[in-house]
Amino acid sequence: MFRENNQTLYAVYDLAISPITFDFMHFAVISHMAARANGYKYVHFVFTLGVNRTWRDTTPKDKALDDKTKLWRLNHIQIPIATMVESYAGHSVYLDRVEAAKELAALIPQMIFPPQYHVNNPQVMFMLSQVVDIHKQITDQVEGTDITPVCLEPNLEAISMAEAWIDHRGIDVDKLVTITVRQATIEPHRNSNMKSWSRFAKHLEKEGYVPVFLVDTEVAMIGDAEALAKHHHIYWPGPVNLDLRVALYSLAKYNLAHNGGPAALNFFLKGSKFLEFLPVDATPDVVKNEGTIAGHERLLAVKDGEDYAFSNGQAKYVWEKATFDNILKNFNKLVEDTSGE
Known about the structure:
- The protein is α/β, with parallel strands linked by helices.
- It has helices spanning 24-37, 60-64, 67-84, 97-105, 128-141, 156-168, 194-206, 217-222, 226-229, 237-240, 242-251, 292-300, 324-338, and strands spanning 8-14, 42-48, 88-94, 112-113, 176-180, 210-214, 233-234, 254-258, 274-277, 315-318.
- It has 13 helices and ten strands.
């Protein structure tokens, strides 16, 4: 696509100080809002490693992943998310930080995001709280603005593939409900109660819905979900291909998840009606020194019982244990609250 440079904001995700995780979604949607707020039509994402091809090495996860794994995650998590941003106009990947500096040196400072970014003065911009703060700043300053972080759209080819999967099984998309569960070997105390979710799925089927499970990637790769597959649909492509995962989310009538991860993309996915059950009974290690609720409120930048202003009541956290009764109660409320939309 031909475009003039002055129509494009160059958003730098500096991997020397930023995580190689799904937190990149926050940077991606912030970059989109910043572009729109400053009159740019497009965003070009620039990924750069640190000096001597180094990555951030701060958290236990940073230290647990080797360089090849981090590069794989860049190509299969972060770049696919970038391509889903409504204003996406390409990306550059620099393993050599000096080469990144050369590209950026050709731009005027106003075309570079975050503000005041330089390879010698990197800026951090990947927190969910920053999404909330920047959206509030924009809406406070520009009355009636439609600038929003809800700006992700799946790729058309991925939608076609997801539709083929749906059609082959004779599923009515108006009855499709995705259920994303956690079954990881890391911090297993935070995993989903599969008995509750399976019971809920069976209830959905009696009500005429078609529940489809998305399992953890490690479970999909080793095929360790045969028991679940005997009773329910499992969307195997989603856990190993982010484009296909988001395509199914975009087609589903409702999306439910337990404990975040890639399902949190639904908060920024256009049209998604989404519930995310938080592990209020199992504190993540990252907030182990705080009360569970207080820790989640800090990480998510929203209070217990509140919704993000940009969600318009369609995407919500559930601050309750994911028991069958709680899942059913909150699903019925989501259906009721969004039935006219």
